[in-house]
Design a protein that fits this description.
The complex is a heterodimer of chains A (132) and B (133).
Chain A: H1 9-30, H2 34-43, H3 47-50, H4 55-79, H5 91-105, H6 110-131
Chain B: H1 2-15, H2 20-31, H3 36-61, H4 66-89, H5 92-111, E1 122-124, E2 130-132
Antiparallel strand pairs in B: 1-2
Helix pairs in contact in B: 1-2, 1-3, 2-3
The chains are: A mainly alpha (132), B mainly alpha (133).
Chain lengths: 132, 133
């Protein structure tokens, strides 16, 4: 299978499947984080360094692969007895915000926003750990 | 109303590739007091809507390789099954602590990640796909 990640086809196929498993596990366990892991792993797969694609292509592939996994995980959660009632409030704003973000990705440099977001995530994670 | 605004802005961040899904989960658990597993399900539904909508836009403008997506997703479905089993086996408190540790790790990684993209050297052709200058 041609993946665009190098000549070592079988090794790259295995690496991609492993990345998917790791990312899927995070989605299943934490309910988030799969996309971050996929972007991180794909960025180190040599594709960017080869210069064939830019980071936004990697991000789009991560998004496309995480979407069915998230839907499947949500299905597993509902089958496990977690109630989905109340989630409808977020559907429309999520869809509108998603389109706006995709539009802005071409027009803004997400670097500064990303740094602020990272600092916020570290703060939130540390406070969760400390509160237990 | 705050929840609607949080969903909108987190989805916009998610569409920009800065991890808004995690931020929305933080809002749900830390600010709105939603139980951890319930918040995780809300976040997954939120993510499906946000990423589905932004993916329509991305699919028209990016180079998305279907074999890569299929391989990632097939591994992902298996991993998600294992992850949801593990998630159901631990309590809300432990899940919350593990999520906190995960946030610190991923936040630190992304904070110190060096710029890898090639955006500066690119422009777009008429169809909107990225091409090299």
């Amino acid at each position: 299978m041609t993946t665009g990640y190098g000549k070592r086809g079988a090794a790259h196929v295995a690496a991609l499947v492993f990345t998917g498993i790791l990312s899927g596990f995070c989605s299943g366990f934490f309910g988030t984080g799969g996309g971050m892991i996929t972007v991180f792993m794909l960025s180190r797969a040599g594709r960017l360094r080869a210069g064939d694609f830019d980071r936004r292509d990697v991000f789009s592939e991560a998004l496309a692969s995480t979407l069915p996994v998230a839907a499947f995980t949500a299905f597993l959660y509902t089958r496990g007895g977690v109630s989905i009632s109340g989630a409808e409030t977020f559907l429309l704003p999520a869809a509108l915000g998603g389109v706006l973000g995709a539009f802005l990705l071409d027009r803004l440099r997400p670097g500064v926003v990303g740094k602020i977001f990272s600092a916020l995530v570290i703060w939130a994670g540390a406070s969760m750990l400390l509160r237990g | 109303m705050i929840g609607v605004l949080a969903a909108f802005f987190c989805a916009a961040l998610s569409g920009m590739g800065v991890g808004g899904g995690g931020l929305f989960l933080i809002y749900l658990t830390a600010l709105s007091g939603t139980p951890q597993r319930q918040a995780q399900l809300y976040n997954l539904v939120f993510f499906v809507c946000a990423s589905g909508a932004s993916l329509i836009y991305h699919a028209c403008r990016r180079n998305i390789r279907l074999p890569v997506v299929i391989l990632l997703a097939s591994g992902g479905v298996f991993g998600a099954y294992l992850g949801s089993l593990a998630s159901g086996a631990v309590g809300d408190g432990a899940l919350r602590a593990a999520f906190g540790a995960f946030l610190v790790l991923t936040g630190t990684l992304s904070l110190f990640r060096r710029g890898e993209g090639k955006e500066e050297n690119r422009t777009k052709n008429i169809s909107g796909r990225n091409i090299k200058k």
